[in-house]
């Protein structure tokens, strides 16, 4: 990667995080190209490239008189990952909103896929559910099979918009959760019930039944993630208190 591009990405990442932390408020001007170039010891070309990246994220708008900060809720979904990475532990409300949204997409995909699937596809879904049932006690081992099932359901449902949104959400969310070591296990009972209802839904081509089971499962996942994040926050606070005492 050219040095110019590397510097522009570093500038963009720094300014992005400062905007997300509201060090620059909506409608405020960013410092001039000259001032930013001096601050980052970079060329004005690198600053312009960085500002272009921020504009693509929807965080700023570039005008003849300079760049103005936009409201965060007008930005693209690509800022979700950086938002969750701002602090050592992500904002619990933001994570819950993610899970609500991704859960709704998974529920829709499940219903449409089972109602649309042909005989061979229903058999494949059934086999994948059986495999999940056999490994349900091992939370780590089961994750690839869960992703494979959801991807297969998405392919059958064939909703490109839902797949693109889901891909972006999964990529950003999973990356942050893995970095934090958070494993949102809703428990064996919840997993058993979901798999049982999925089997019934597939056997009877009942998309509503399977979708309802998926919704119930994601509600359990949301609770599990909330507890995990709360526990991580408490641990960090304890560590901080111990360091302060020392």
Question: What does it look like?
Answer:
The protein contains ten helices and two strands. It is mostly helical. The protein has two domains: 3-75, Arc Repressor Mutant, subunit A (Orthogonal Bundle), CATH 1.10.10; 79-245, GntR ligand-binding domain-like (Four Helix Bundle (Hemerythrin (Met), subunit A), Up-down Bundle), CATH 1.20.120. Strands 1-2 form a two-stranded antiparallel ribbon. The two termini are 44 Å apart.
Keywords:
about 250 residues; mainly alpha; Arc Repressor Mutant, subunit A; Four Helix Bundle (Hemerythrin (Met), subunit A); 2 domains; two-stranded antiparallel ribbon; 2 strands
Summarize the topology.
Elements: H1 3-20, H2 33-40, H3 44-56, E1 60-63, E2 66-69, H4 80-84, H5 92-116, H6 119-134, H7 139-157, H8 160-180, H9 188-203, H10 207-245
Antiparallel strand pairs: 1-2
Helix pairs in contact: 1-3, 2-3, 5-7, 5-8, 5-10, 6-7, 6-9, 9-10
Summed up:
With 246 residues, the chain is mainly alpha-helical. The chain is 73% helix and 3% strand. The protein folds into two domains: 3-75, Winged helix-like DNA-binding domain superfamily/Winged helix DNA-binding domain (Arc Repressor Mutant, subunit A), CATH 1.10.10; 79-245, Four Helix Bundle (Hemerythrin (Met), subunit A), CATH 1.20.120.
């Amino acid at each position: 990667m050219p040095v110019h591009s590397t510097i522009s990405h570093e500038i963009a990442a720094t300014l992005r995080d400062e905007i997300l932390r509201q060090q620059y408020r909506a409608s405020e001007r960013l410092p001039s190209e000259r001032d930013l170039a001096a601050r980052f010891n970079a060329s004005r070309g690198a600053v312009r490239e960085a500002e272009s990246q921020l504009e693509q994220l929807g965080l700023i708008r570039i005008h003849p008189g300079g760049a103005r900060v936009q409201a965060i809720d007008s930005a693209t979904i690509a800022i979700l990952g950086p938002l969750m990475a701002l602090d050592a532990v992500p904002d619990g409300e933001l994570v819950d909103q993610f899970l609500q949204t991704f859960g709704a997409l998974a529920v829709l995909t499940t219903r449409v896929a089972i109602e649309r699937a042909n005989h061979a596809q229903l058999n494949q879904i059934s086999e994948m559910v059986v495999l999940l049932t056999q490994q349900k006690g091992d939370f780590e081992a089961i994750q690839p099979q869960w992703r494979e099932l959801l991807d297969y359901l998405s392919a059958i449902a064939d909703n490109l918009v839902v797949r693109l949104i889901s891909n972006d959400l999964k990529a950003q969310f999973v990356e942050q959760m893995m970095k934090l070591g958070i494993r949102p296990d809703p428990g064996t009972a919840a997993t058993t019930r979901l798999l049982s209802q999925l089997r019934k839904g597939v056997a009877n081509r009942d998309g509503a039944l399977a979708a309802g089971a998926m919704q119930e499962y994601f509600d359990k996942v949301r609770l599990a993630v909330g507890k995990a994040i709360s526990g991580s926050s408490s641990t960090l606070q304890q560590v901080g208190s111990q360091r302060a005492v020392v």
